[in-house]
Structures are given as structure tokens and as C-alpha cells.
Amino acid sequence: MKCLVTGATGFLGTNLVHELLKIGWDVRTIVRKGSNTEYIKSLPIEIVYGELTNPKDVDSAVIGCDIVFNVAGDTSFWKRYFEKQRKINVEGPSIIAEACIKHKVKRLVHTSTVDIFGCNPLGVADEQWSDYNFINTGYNYADTKREGEKRVLKYNDKGLEVVVIYPGSMMGPYDFTLQYGRLFFDLRDGKVPGCPPGGASFCHVTEVAKAHIAAALKGVPGEGYICAGENISYKALFDLIAGKFDKKAPGFIFKPWMLVIYSYIMQTISAFTGKAPEIDPGNARYMSINAWYDSSKAIKELDYKLIPVPKMIDDAYNWYKENGFFNK
After folding, report:
1. C-alpha–C-alpha distance, residues 270 and 277, integer Å
2. What is the pTM assigned to this prediction?
3. Contact between residue 249 and residue 186 where contact means Cβ atoms under 8 Å apart
4. Distance between the two ends of the chain, CA-based, in angstroms?
5. Crossing angle for the helix pair 140-153 and 92-102, to the nearest 10 degrees
6. Strand 161-167 vs strand 107-111: parallel, antiparallel, or unpaired?
7. Which residues in the chain show pLDDT less than 50?
8. Are the C-beta atoms of residues 139 and 283 closer than 8 Å to each other?
């Protein structure tokens, strides 16, 4: 099976490439020039260079593929990058879908996020949850991913089978972009001032990658699958991570309004330093609620597996250690 993987130099994309090779797929990737290819460059894959917002680049990458995995996404939460984020998250998926139609690709597996659903303030949300209550919160990542997904799903009516995966908050190996690695290091070094008041649904990145492959083989066209996991508070997560270093997480838990004020302070500082803030107001509001989700559909239809949070933390910790990140 010949496939294209976008976002192959990211956390999930790298894991997906490794999982595809394990089952013998022929893998091509499209990456931006200057991207960190350290964890895929020695693999038996084809690497082509191009921009996902350039139709010609995408067109060349899609030719000859049976399946396309659009894993690419811009997760930035700094206003300076919002225009670029919109191009990648909103315009990019449609460009990829157009190329798939042109070259008669059978199926496109599109990586979205659980964030596009909003959250259920009284419990957990599943694929049927329809109250997108992140509107006007400044959470640009969710806004753009939601719009991009709506656009790409319309291609089901144009002859392309589109299946969507909604990952939760991922942990595990190949987190060289340090999505959660920074938290490991900051908790180790006592640099975390307090814990966010909300919680999230945490999942193992390897299982999410496997779910993408299952979606390519047996997912229902036009359908989406939440691949989340254990629903826990950030305080509980911080306690578990700090424990790996025989340290304690901060006992202080921000009030929602306090976290938002803190985020505005960080945003103001970033305007002077030129460095991305630790957190922005949209992200602060998101981390102040319990964004919890139900993965039952993916478990039933894609054989998706839930991994306990301590195991995810162990796998991430061991990967950072084995690859020298704790020495940097």
C-alpha cells in the first residue's frame, strides 16, 4: 500500500510513519525545507520537500498514492502565528483533498482534534456532542481545525472517502518537539508556578497512530472517531509527572480568572522578548475546564486501545532519557 503522510516531522506524524513501516506500507512524506527530519531520515521512506499551502507541491506529493494521511496541523497559540495557522489548518486540508480527487486517491484520513467539539461541562462528550462552546474564547487552534475539517468532509460528496480522527492530549515516544516534554523538565526543575484548574483526556500517541491506520482500512467514510483516553485533572497529571523525578507538583491550583490574567501577562512579555508565551488567553480558558471525551466508538470500530496515564508518562520519560533530552 502506497501512502503519503503530511506532518511526518511532528509528534504524531513521526509515530505514524514508524507504525506504517512496521506493517510493510510504502511511505512517502512531504515536509517543509528546514524541518527536523532526524527521527525519520534514516528510515526506508521517500521524503519530498514542499509546502502544504502550495497546490503544486501537494499535487506532486499525492501522485501515485492509494491513501493520504493528513496529519499536519499548526498547534501554535501565539497571535503572531495565527495567520499561518489558518492557512495550514483551514486551507491546507482542502488543497490536499483537491489533489486526492485529481489523482484518484481512494481515501483521505484527516487528523482533527477533540477540541473541535467543544466540551460537555457536565461530563464527557462523544462524536454526537454539538455544542461548540469555545467560540469567542480566543482558542484559535480549535477554531481553525474545526473550520478545516468542515471543508474537507464536503469532499465525501465528490468521490473521496474522508475519515476523521480526533486525538486527545497525546503523550509517548518521539516527542522531540516537546509538546509535553517542557512540562516534564519544568516540573523537574521547580519552574511550574501552579496547576491549571481544568483537566483533559490523555492518550498514548502510538495507539492514536495505529487508529489512523485502522481508519484507512476500515473506517466509515464521512465518519469521525474520538481517540482520547483517561480523563484526569491537570493537577493529577502534574503529580504523576513530578513523581518520576521524586519531586512534588505545586499544591497551588490557579483559579480560572487568575490563569487568564497570568496568560495576558505572558503574552505582554512575549511582545518584548520575541519568544512565544508559555500560555495565551485562549489556551488559558481551555485549560480551565474539564475537556473530557468518550472513545467508545473508536474502541469498537477501530480496535483503539486506552493506555493508563502512568504508562504514557513512563513511555515518554524513557524516550526523553534514552535520547538525551534530560541532559540538554
Report:
1. 5
2. 0.95
3. no
4. 39
5. 20
6. parallel
7. none
8. yes
pLDDT of residue 157: 87
Rounded CA separation 249/314 (Å): 17
Amino acid at 190: G
pLDDT of residue 328: 67
The residue type of 273 is T
Question: What domains does the chain contain, in order, with CATH numbers?
Answer: 2-178+201-231+293-308 (3.40.50.720)
Cα 105 to Cα 26, 40, 108, 160, distances in angstroms: 15, 24, 8, 7
CA 194 to chain centroid, in Å, comes to 24
C-alpha cell of residue 58? 501537494
Q: Which of 19, 22, 17, 23 shows the shortest CA–CA distance to 4?
A: 17
pLDDT attached to residue 285: 93
Find cell 496568560 and name the residue. Answer: 263
The three-state (H, E, C) secondary structure of 134-192, written as one string:
CCCCCCHHHHHHHHHHHHHHHHHHHCCEEEEEEECEEECCCCCCCCCHHHHHHHHCCCC
pLDDT value at position 267? Answer: 87
